[in-house]
């Protein structure tokens, strides 16, 4: 091997040792959600229930669309506690729930206005990463 080949090989080994030139991937919090209420409805009773499940790896579904008068039912299937809460504007106080321990549930009051709300798990805020395990 000549000196030019040796220098090229050392340069490539140096890049490999540094992990290459790709930037690190942004960490996405799996405990964020978006709720869209597609229509308005004046009601004090849940006209339909849509489940949202917390697990050790995130929440499912994280994006939900419901009709006015619909309610969400949060269930914690994780060993770690979770707490849904509205974030940003517009605020949707119906999403502000209690701390849910394993197998705990929380049913919102009906959503009556057409809007889009965002929510997060207060116990796993953005940048926090995730929940527990079984």
Short description:
With 134 residues, the chain is mostly beta strands.
Helix-strand blueprint:
Layout: H1 3-17, E1 32-37, E2 48-55, E3 58-60, E4 63-66, E5 70-76, E6 84-87, E7 105-107, E8 115-121
Parallel strand pairs: 1-4, 2-5
Antiparallel strand pairs: 1-8, 2-3, 5-7, 6-8
Structure, explained:
This protein is mostly beta strands. 11% of the residues lie in helices and 31% in strands. The chain has one helix at 3-17, and strands at residues 32-37, 48-55, 58-60, 63-66, 70-76, 84-87, 105-107, 115-121. The N and C termini lie far apart (55 Å).
Count of helical stretches: 1
Query: Low-confidence spans: pLDDT under 50, at least 5 residues?
Result: 6-20, 129-134
How would you classify the helix and strand content by structural class?
mainly beta
Number of strands: 8
The helix/strand series, from N terminus to C terminus, equals HEEEEEEEE
The mean pLDDT is: 82
Radius of gyration from CA coordinates: 22 Å
Shape: globular
Largest sheet: 4 strands, mixed
Beta-strand percentage?
25-35%
Keywords summarizing the entry:
about 30% strand; four-stranded mixed β-sheet; about 130 residues; disordered C terminus; mainly beta; 1 helix
């Amino acid at each position: 091997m000549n000196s030019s080949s040796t220098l090229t090989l050392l340069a490539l080994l140096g890049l490999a040792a540094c992990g290459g030139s790709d930037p690190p991937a942004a960490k996405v919090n799996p405990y964020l959600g978006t709720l869209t209420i597609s229509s308005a409805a004046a009601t004090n009773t849940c006209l339909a229930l849509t489940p949202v499940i917390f697990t050790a790896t995130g929440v499912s579904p994280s994006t939900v669309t419901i009709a006015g008068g619909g309610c969400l039912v949060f269930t914690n299937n994780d060993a770690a506690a979770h707490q849904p809460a509205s974030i940003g504007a517009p605020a949707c106080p119906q999403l502000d729930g209690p701390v849910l321990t394993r197998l705990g549930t929380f049913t919102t009051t009906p959503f009556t206005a057409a809007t889009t709300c965002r929510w997060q798990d207060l116990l796993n805020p953005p940048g926090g990463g995730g929940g527990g395990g079984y």
